[in-house]
Automatic annotation (TrEMBL):
<dbReference type="Pfam" id="PF00293">
    <property type="entry name" value="NUDIX"/>
</dbReference>
<dbReference type="InterPro" id="IPR000086">
    <property type="entry name" value="NUDIX_hydrolase_dom"/>
</dbReference>
<protein>
    <submittedName>
        <fullName>ADP-ribose pyrophosphatase YjhB (NUDIX family)</fullName>
    </submittedName>
</protein>
<dbReference type="InterPro" id="IPR015797">
    <property type="entry name" value="NUDIX_hydrolase-like_dom_sf"/>
</dbReference>
<keyword id="KW-0378">Hydrolase</keyword>
<feature type="domain" description="Nudix hydrolase">
    <location>
        <begin position="11"/>
        <end position="139"/>
    </location>
</feature>
């Protein structure tokens, strides 16, 4: 069981995501619509956020990571496919210990993953959008973000 609940067209969840950073680049997954996002997902009951981020990266891109530090705690609200989401998210800076898979299988489709230069994040459709600017300015301190994308 994970920390997600759905009521009508509203989804609430608690997630952990991995910001795989190496050599000034971040490893991102790309949806079929061209939107980029980080590996990650819902936290299981009884699991810490650090355990969740390691598990999600292992499941999604077959990569073992070292968790470096928590970078952002985000209250993220957005609409996707007619469903309104409200997520509490823990975004961790992680270092890959093994090479990540070049593809991710999610929702029945294969998705391409790639290293993207952090200085060029503002040129892509990245979700959540705050990562475009905040990741460049990450200083090792945890930052609270309220992100409203409606």
């Amino acid at each position: 069981m994970d920390f997600r609940t759905k009521s009508d067209q509203q989804m609430f969840g608690v997630r952990a995501t991995a910001l795989l950073v190496q050599d000034g680049k971040v490893y991102l997954c790309k949806s079929s619509s061209g939107t980029y996002y980080c590996a990650g997902g819902a936290i299981l009951v009884g699991e810490t956020t650090e355990e969740a981020v390691k598990r999600e990266v292992r499941e999604e891109i077959a990569c073992e990571v070292r968790v470096d530090h928590l970078a952002f705690v985000a209250e993220n609200t957005f609409c996707q496919a007619g469903v309104n989401f409200h997520n509490i998210e823990f975004h961790y800076i992680v270092t890959p210990v093994t090479a990540p898979s070049p593809n991710m299988r999610e929702d029945g489709e294969e998705r391409v993953c790639e290293w993207v230069d952090i200085d060029k994040l503002d040129t892509i459709d990245l979700r959540p959008a705050f990562l475009k600017t905040e990741l460049k300015n990450c200083d090792g301190k945890v930052k609270h973000i309220v992100n409203m994308e409606r």
